[in-house]
Amino acid sequence: MKPEKIWLSSPHMGGNEQKFIEKAFEENWIAPLGPNVTGFEEDLQKYLGEDSYVSVLSSGTAAIHLGLIHLGVGLGDEVICQTFTFSASANPIVYLGATPVFVDSEEETWNMCPIALEEAIKSRIEKGKKPKAIIAVHLYGMPFKVDEILQVAQKYDIPVLEDSAEALGSTYKKQKCGTFGTISILSFNGNKIITTSGGGALVTKQKEIKEKTIFLATQARDNAPHYQHSHIGYNYRMSNICAGIGRGQMEVLDLHVEKRRAMHQFYSDFFASNSEISILKEPNSDFYSNHWLSAIILPNYATREALRLAFEKENIETRPLWKPMHLQPVFKECLFFGKNTAEQLFEKGLCLPSGSNLEEDNKERITEVIRCFF
Ligand SMILES: Cc1ncc(COP(=O)(O)O)c(C=O)c1O
Predict the structure, then answer these.
(1) Ligand 1 pocket, 60 CB below 6 A?
(2) Ligand 1: centre distance to CA 110 (Å)
(3) Contact 373, 28 (CB under 8 A)
(4) How far apart are CA 143 and CA 191, in angstroms?
(5) How far apart are the CA of 363 and the centre of ligand 1, in A?
(6) In sequence order, what are the residues at sequence separation of 6 or more whose Cβ sits closer than 8 angstroms to the Cβ of residue 21?
(7) How many whole angstroms separate alpha carbon 184 and alpha carbon 63?
C-alpha cells in the first residue's frame, strides 16, 4: 500500500473559516457580494496598509486581466512580462488582443532582470512600439529587485503591474509585496499561502480604480433602474462564501508565513553540507520572502528528473520550476530579451513540499528520499 500523499502545497485551514461561511448561510448571503466580501477586503486593506484599496475577485488571473484594462492595454499593444512565471501572468495580455514581450530573470531572486528589461524597452521604443505595461512577478514568494525594476519603469514612464500572486506576506525593505505596482494583484488559489479555494484580489492606491474594478467585475452595469451597459463587463467578483474562507485565513496568515519560512530553514540546514544542491534564498536583508515554495537547483536536468521521480515513487509531490513563457509552444512567436537564466532554472530546478501544514513525519519521509538518492 502506498504511503499517504505529501503535497507540494495544500490548503491549510485555521479553524474559523467555517464560522464565516455558516453566518453567510444563516443570513442567506449566498452571492458575489455580502459582509464577508466587504470584511475580507477590509482585512486585506488593513494588512497591506490603509492607503491600499482592495477588490476581491474570482481569481488572480481575473485581477491581472482587469489590471491591464486599467492600464489601458488594448488591441495591438505590447506588454513586457517576466518569462519565468506561471502562464496566468501572461495570458490576460492575449485576452486583450495585445502581445507579450518576454524578459529573462537575474540569478539572485530568479525574477525579472532589470538590465534585460531596459534592453527590451529600448529595443521596442526604437521600433516605435513603446510597451504599454510591465508585469513583474515575485516568484515563489521572493520579492523581485523592486528598486531597480521601478527605476527602469519610471525612467521610461511605463506602469508596473505587480504580480504578487505568490507573495502575500513577503516584504522588500520592510514594505509589503502587493503594494509596489501601479496595480498589484494577489491570488488565493488552493495552493497559495492563504486560500479561498479559488480567488484573487486587485490592489491599488486609488479609490476610483477600486470602484471601476468592482464595476467591471460585476458586468459593468450603468446606474439605471433597468439593466443598461455602456461598457463590456465581466463576471469576476468573489462570492461571499469564498470570502468567508478568506476572512478565516487572514487570522492565520502570519502563522503560515512563519511555518513556510521554518520549512525553508529546515531545507537550508539539511542541504548546507551538500555541494550539489543550492536553494533559493534572500540575497540580503532588504528581501523577506514568505517562502511560499522552497526551490532547489540540482547539477543538471537528469539529476533533477531522477530526484523528482524518486519522490513520486514515495508518493511525494514535487514540481519542476516554471517553464519559461518564451519556451512555451503557445508563445513561440513572441519576442524575448535576455540570456538563458530562466531556461537553466527550469532545467535544473525543483520545488519541494513547502506547506505550512507539514508535520515532522512528513519531513522525515522527504529527507529519507533525499538521503537515499545521494
Ligand atoms: C505567478 C502567478 N500569477 C498569477 C497566478 C494566477 O492566479 P489564479 O490562479 O488565482 O488565477 C498565479 C497562480 O495561480 C501565479 O502563481
Answers:
(1) yes
(2) 17
(3) no
(4) 19
(5) 27
(6) 241, 244, 245
(7) 8
Which string of DSSP letters, residue by residue, matches 187-233? E--TTSSS--SS-EEEEES-HHHHHHHHHHHBT---SSSS---SS--
Q: Looking at the CA of residue 188, tell me the nearest atom of ligand 1.
A: 10
Q: Can you tell me the distance from the alpha carbon of 149 to that of 154, in angstroms, rounded to the nearest whole number? A: 9
pLDDT at 2 over 90: no
Cα angle 261-265-271, degrees, rounded to a multiple of 5? 145
Cβ of residue 58 lying under 6 Å from some atom of ligand 1: no
Q: Which three cell numbers stand for residue 241?
A: 462564501
CA atoms within 13 Å, Cβ hemisphere of 21: 14
Q: Which atom of ligand 1 is nearest to the CA of 59?
A: 10
**Gap between the Cα atoms of 166 and 192, Å rounded:** 6
Please report the beta strands in 58-148, taking only residues with DSSP state E, as ranges in sequence order. Answer: 78-82, 99-103, 133-137
In one-letter notation, the amino acid at residue 186 is L
- Tell me how many helices (H) and strands (E) the chain has: 12, 15
Confidence label for 348 from pLDDT (cuts 50, 70 and 90): very high
Q: Per-residue pLDDT tens for 133-153?
A: 999 999 999 999 999 999 999
pLDDT category at 1 given cuts 50, 70, 90 is confident
39, 217, 329 from 212: Cα distances, Å: 19, 8, 35
pLDDT at 50 over 90: no
Q: Which of 292, 277, 367, 335 is nearest to 6 (CA)?
A: 367
Q: Which of 140, 183, 189 to mutate to test the pocket of ligand 1 (most atoms within 8 A of CB)?
A: 189
Residue with CA nearest ligand 1 atom 8:
60
Pick the closest to residue 331 from 340, 323, 321 (CA basis).
323
HEC sequence for 2-25: CCCCECCCCCCCCCCHHHHHHHHH
Query: Ligand 1 atom 15: the closest Cα is on which residue?
Result: 165
What gap in Å lies between CA 295 and CA 310, rounded to an integer? 16
Q: What is the pLDDT of residues 187-213, one digit of tens each?
A: 999 999 999 999 999 999 999 999 999
